[in-house]
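Figure 3 (text version): structure tokens given as input.
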């Protein structure tokens, strides 16, 4: 019951834009956490391993509950799920601004991650429903909002938190309140949509056949999992430790390191715009393949560059790599068209979980081997994009 009533239904652009704005606000708040790691580390005298553990708790909270949310709301839709997620995020931000120990910080980021685990699968589901069949474009609009929020998070920390102290993170609770306001028209539209679907399909539940056999579907999901694994290991190295890397290698200030992180996140926003529409035209498989494997030249060059070259390579790597996720998500949704919430939750959740585990492991490796060695190792992970060659071409299968 969770899709447009017919393929001819036009896209509800104001709802897609509102969802993109909501994703922007949510990921802005989420990015504040990662961008604040240098301040938290200095404030509490933490090791890189402890920073990695805090990131692991946050990422696991963001990942483990996402498929649960997807399954629950596939069966029992809840029109007000989006403001509920923003409330948990606001509560976590208030706690993290006053936490003085690692356990307290872990509890704080757990609530922030829980808020994210509610928003991502639900907002992604509603985006697909409001797309009117233009799912790649709609998902790109939705994703670019999140990536822009992630890119501005470090700048917000540099402007609001770094000069005045960690307690100022509480100001971002106002962003959560704004997110609740923005979500209200989406909730009203979604509630009306659910009522119309129930009325139209009171006797027969709509169903769409899977394009692949069960065995091929499982195989394709395994290939996608490998691709997500490689993508988010490299993403974790940059999103969690790029600030430390440029400070350690080039001796720049904390504020400049936030600008460097902004450059990377801004590139991910720009790349996201490309991935969805191009996937609509040429097929998801080729976008996934080009995106992940195409990151390798830039990731391999980055450890050997000067400051400006490092920033340029980080921009190019972020641009290439980020275009993959809308294509990956839509590819999975097209394989399982009757489980939009479950698929969104699983793949957002798996991506966040890989990023969290990678952050914890990489934090330990940084303590043992140093930042330079870890970045040199992670540079090879995008080469796993070669396995995308084994993905079935769903675009060709649909035409057959």
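Below: residues designed for each position.
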């Amino acid at each position: 019951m969770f899709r447009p009533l017919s393929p001819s239904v036009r896209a509800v652009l104001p709802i897609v834009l509102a969802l993109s704005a909501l994703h922007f606000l949510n990921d802005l708040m989420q990015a504040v956490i990662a961008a604040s790691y240098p301040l938290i580390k200095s404030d509490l005298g933490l090791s890189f391993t402890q920073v990695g553990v805090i990131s692991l708790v946050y990422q696991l909270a963001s990942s483990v509950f996402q498929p649960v949310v997807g399954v629950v709301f596939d069966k029992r839709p809840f029109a007000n799920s989006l403001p509920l997620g923003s409330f948990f995020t606001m509560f976590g931000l208030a706690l993290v601004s006053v936490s003085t120990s690692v356990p307290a910080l872990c509890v704080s980021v757990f609530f922030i991650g829980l808020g994210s685990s509610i928003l991502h699968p639900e907002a992604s589901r509603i985006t697909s429903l409001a797309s009117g069949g233009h799912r790649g474009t709609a998902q790109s609009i939705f994703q670019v909002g999140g990536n822009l929020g992630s890119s501005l998070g470090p700048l917000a920390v540099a402007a609001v938190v770094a000069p005045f102290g960690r307690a100022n993170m509480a100001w971002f609770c106002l962003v959560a309140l704004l997110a609740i306001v923005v979500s209200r028209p989406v909730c009203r539209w979604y509630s009306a949509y659910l009522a119309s679907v129930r009325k139209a399909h009171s006797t027969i539940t709509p169903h769409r056949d899977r394009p692949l056999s069960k065995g091929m579907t499982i195989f394709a999901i395994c290939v996608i999992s490998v691709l997500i694994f490689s993508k988010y290991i490299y993403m974790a190295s940059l999103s969690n430790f790029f600030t430390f890397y440029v400070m350690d290698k080039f001796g720049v200030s904390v504020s400049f390191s936030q600008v460097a992180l902004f450059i990377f996140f801004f590139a991910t926003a720009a790349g996201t715009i490309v991935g969805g529409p191009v996937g609509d035209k040429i097929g998801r498989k080729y976008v996934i393949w080009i995106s992940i494997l195409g990151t390798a030249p830039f990731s391999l060059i980055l450890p050997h560059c000067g400051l400006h070259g490092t920033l340029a390579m980080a921009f190019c790597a972020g641009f290439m790599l980020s275009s993959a996720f809308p294509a990956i998500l839509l590819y999975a949704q097209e394989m399982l068209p009757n489980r939009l919430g479950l698929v969104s939750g699983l793949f957002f959740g798996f991506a966040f979980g890989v990023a969290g585990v990678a952050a914890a492991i990489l934090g330990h490796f940084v303590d043992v081997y140093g930042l330079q060695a870890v970045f040199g190792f992670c540079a090879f992970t995008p080469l796993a994009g070669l396995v995308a060659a084994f993905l079935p071409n769903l675009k060709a299968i649909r035409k057959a």
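The chain has 16 helices and no strands.
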